UniProtKB/TrEMBL annotation:
Transmembrane feature ranges: none
Family matches, as SUPFAM superfamilies: Protein kinase-like (PK-like) (SSF56112)
Protein name: Serine/threonine protein kinase
Entry-linked Gene3D superfamilies: Transferase(Phosphotransferase) domain 1
Signal sequence, start to end: none
Length: 220
């Protein structure tokens, strides 16, 4: 987007969205809660730190706002500065006062793809692998890369959430997802075109988080 459009969106964000937004973090391990936001703004999604919105006049970008009391804004700002411009990542156009304006990535998450029975090509996995290697080359540490943080569009893979890429501790989320992709998804689920219900997927996700927290506790 050009500079004039960017400045106008910043104004709308500060004068229309933020004063009329009721956003809170109830549980740091679950997505933030949006109690209210003004029209014509639209909710794109929520994460454990922030919520993402779009405006119908600016279809190619989104606005990400951190919930009050949640850390991580400065870290995410630095991550985007290091990533620069890369086809598998978003691009940051503005980052001030717990608010980021980012290039909008099209696609569907791998979590939703499995939920809807959509086929996930191997190229998607390769693209994400390459993107994570690129991040490491920039001195970053890909972290919390799971099915809801990566997505595909027209057969290519993208990384949606980079907010934890400065964390130094090891994370096996992406490695485990790839194992499930090659050992479970490709040989069994994909040929059957099975749609996996949310209840089962969320159960697997919760069990994985619980087991990972136990392992982290045992290492201490």
């Amino acid at each position: 987007m050009d500079e004039l459009q960017l400045q106008e969106l910043i104004r709308k964000t500060n004068e229309e969205l933020r004063p009329n937004l009721n956003l809170e973090s109830v549980d740091p391990h679950n997505p933030v809660v949006i109690n209210h936001y003004p029209t014509p703004w639209q909710k794109v999604g929520t994460g454990n730190y922030a919520a993402v919105f779009s405006h119908p006049e600016y279809e190619k970008v989104v606005v990400k706002i951190y919930a009050p009391g949640r850390d991580g804004f400065e870290e995410e700002k630095e991550v985007y500065e290091r990533l620069g411009k890369h086809p598998a990542y978003s691009q940051c156009f503005y980052a001030e006062n717990n608010c980021l304006i980012l290039k909008r990535l099209k696609g569907i998450t791998l979590y939703d793809s499995v939920n809807q029975g959509l086929k996930i090509p191997k190229q998607v996995i390769k693209d994400i692998d390459d993107a994570l290697d690129y991040a490491r080359e920039q001195g970053l540490f890909p972290h919390d890369v799971h099915g809801k943080n990566v997505m595909m569009w027209e057969g290519r893979g993208y990384v949606v959430d980079v907010s934890d890429f400065l964390k130094l501790e090891s994370c096996s989320a992406w490695k485990n997802l790839k194992t499930a992709y090659y050992w479970l998804y490709r040989p069994i689920l994909s040929p059957l075109n099975l749609k996996i219900p949310d209840l089962l997927l969320d159960g697997v996700r919760s069990s994985y988080r619980f087991s990972r927290s136990l392992l982290d506790f045992e290492r201490k």
